[in-house]
C-alpha cells in the first residue's frame, strides 16, 4: 500500500474526498456515524432500517444477506464509495473508517496515557497516529482482532475497523511477535468474572413458566454450539445468539448466572473479551426493551 499523502485530519465537509484519496492508496474505507458506529450501507439497511444500532460496532438484528455493515463493507471501489446509499451517508458521517486488515495492516489502539506509556516501553517503534485519548500504533502485517488484550489496549486488524485520523508520523514497522502474542488467550477458570456476569444477568433464576427445563437446557446448548462453530463474524454471532436466548427466556425468570457463564465462556473461547461479552449482553437487553 502506498502511504496516504493527506496531511491534515478530515472534517465533515471533506469526508468523501478523504475516502476517495485513501481508497486510491489501497485503504478500504467506510463511512462512520458520529460516535464511530457504522452505517447500514445497502438499500435494505440504509438509515439502520434493518434494526442495526447506530453506536454499535456490530450490527443489530439484521437478516440482510449482503456484507453491508462495519468492516465487511469497507471498499476501495470509487463507484461504490460515490453511489447511493453511501453518497448520502457521507453527508451525515462523523468520520471516515477503514479496514486495517484489508490493507495488510494492524492497529494497536492505545486508549489512554497509561497504555501509551506501556507501549513505548514494550513495543517496537512504528508509525504513530494521535487520537482523542491516546494513540494508534500501526504495523505492516495482519492478525486476529481482539479487544481488551490489556487495560486500554485493543488490536484492530482482520474483521475490524478503525477511524482514520491522519497518516501519523514515523516509519511503519513489520508486525512484531510481541503484538501477535497479545492476542493469545491464556485459559483460566476465573473467566468470565462472576461479579460482572451477575451484574448483567437479567432474571431471577426461577422456574420457567412457559417452557420446560429440558427445553431451556437444549436452548443453552444450541447457543453454545452456535458460538463455538462460528468461523467468521464472531462478534455478530455472539450478539445475535445472546439476543435469541434473551428473546426466548429473558422475561420468564429461568436464566441463572450458570447459564450466562456458559454463554460467556463459549464466546471467550472464540477470542471475545469479557468487556465485549458484557456489552453484547447489555445491547441485546436494550434491543428487546428488557
The gist of it:
The chain is of the alpha+beta class. Helices cover 37% and strands 13% of the residues.
Notes on the structure:
The chain has 290 residues and is of the alpha+beta class. The protein is built from eleven helices and nine strands. The protein has helices at 15-24, 70-73, 78-81, 86-92, 113-122, 177-180, 194-200, 213-228, 234-249, 257-269, 274-288; strands at 29-32, 95-98, 105-110, 127-130, 135-140, 146-150, 153-156, 162-163, 173-174. The strands form two sheets. Strands 3, 4, 5, 6, 7 and 9 form a six-stranded mixed sheet that branches. Strands 1-2-8 form a three-stranded antiparallel sheet. A hairpin with a 4-residue loop joins strand 4 and strand 5 (135-140). Helix 8 runs antiparallel to helix 9, helix 8 runs parallel beside helix 10 (257-269) and helix 9 (234-249) crosses helix 11. The longest helix is centred in the last third of the chain and has 16 residues, at 213-228. The termini are far apart. Mean pLDDT is 78; it is low at 3-13, 53-60 and 187-206.
Write the layout of secondary structure elements.
Layout: H1 15-24, E1 29-32, H2 70-73, H3 78-81, H4 86-92, E2 95-98, E3 105-110, H5 113-122, E4 127-130, E5 135-140, E6 146-150, E7 153-156, E8 162-163, E9 173-174, H6 177-180, H7 194-200, H8 213-228, H9 234-249, H10 257-269, H11 274-288
Parallel strand pairs: 5-9
Antiparallel strand pairs: 1-2, 2-8, 3-5, 3-7, 4-5, 6-7
Helix pairs in contact: 8-9, 8-10, 9-11
